[in-house]
Amino acid sequence: MRVYLDFLGCRLNEAELEQWRRAFVARGHRVVARPEDADVCILNTCAVTGEAGRQSRQMARRLHRRNPQAHIVFAGCDADMEPERAKAIEGVDLVIGNREKDRLVERVIEAFADTVTMPAGALFPDAAHMFPGSRTRAFVKVQDGCNNHCTFCIVTVLRGEERSRAIGDIIAEVNALVGMGYREVVLTGVHLGGYGRDRGTSLFELVRAILRETEIERLRLSSLEPWDIPDQFFDLWEEGEGRLMPHLHLPLQSGCDAMLRRMGRRYTTADYAALVERARRRIPDLTLTTDIIVGFPGETDDEFATSLAFVEKMAFGHIHIFSYSPREGTPATRLPNHVPSAVKKARSRAMHALMRRLKAHHLARYVGDVRPVLWEDVVAEGQGDTRTWSGLTDNYLRVYAVVPAHIDLRNAITPTRLVRVVDGARLLGEPDLTRASWPRHAQVWNTSSHEIPLFVK
Ligand code: SF4
User: What is the pTM assigned to this prediction?
Assistant: First the structure.
């Protein structure tokens, strides 16, 4: 069976897509790069805003137009919002909500594998390259659901109660990924910091077990709620001896205490600032990123100004900015004084301008330093005999490097001198190619080929 996979929305959706890709391939199916080549198109949808839901349904219709013969599977949050509406979309043959996602691959195979035959000898472009950092950085979903009740959040309604995977299963998955050549694993979940509470364990124990029982070279945490980080947690960066990446994504949502109360968040700005201060003291060269909602119901001009000032003080390396969008079924929709859309737009522009300034400043701090970069993909063919590669430092700075075209850097880690900031948003680096390292299972450095270095088993 030939399967095309696509998604909208968050990192968790992307992590699920990557897991499905690996599961289909492990069961002998092909994951293709274009819907036109597929027997089944699977769409992992988003409903975090009304607009995201609309785009999800539009994307399903577009898939059907591109390949009217393909079965379309409509999965995830927008499937849960209104399953009947999803079923009515032309071309959609299967609707799979969040609670059934763990069995998605089996359900799709049961439903469609017997109805299609792979044309003999047919070649289709493989989709591995469409997954950013594919074979370099893997997202591993360790839990689903959330027991918190932030007043704006539809995700907690759609994803249900917290459920964690067993530590042993996760260790086995990480070890398998290491065996496949992955060098970085990113742990993800709807409420990652809640990991293990339903199993009498914790994220601390999970991270410690991964560091001790696997050989993954770089371990990264996705989003952590600020109230989920006890002091002891920072010991892990010392224990990890450079394998736990110096990067934290701590969603702030607003830099104004009155807003945090209305949002149902469980901290004040003072708590948050104290946490950031501790994190920066314990984790050298930490990059701190966050989420901010602008235009939440009741947000006054003064409250927004307070929020902006606090965000500036925290000196974030990057900010995901969302304009508040009411979602039916969440308490925030019933709050008074919804902010007019023109005001939301103006606040979003102001927050974006601040974000760009903070980001440029954060990147400039590292110019002149040498940091390890894991190279992922070619982003541009250069003029003449060069190509531009993109990769990530340990502390989550996106770096670009122009290198001779015959050199394949995919999945290499190189010490890289960061030479300058381009357009205030990107770092240009000079990798030390003589000190490139490859996964322990793949030690062949082949400069005469554009292929991934040979994997020696
Ligand atoms: S912590 Fe809050 S924002 Fe995050 S998923 Fe749970 S309810 Fe939603």
Answer: 0.85
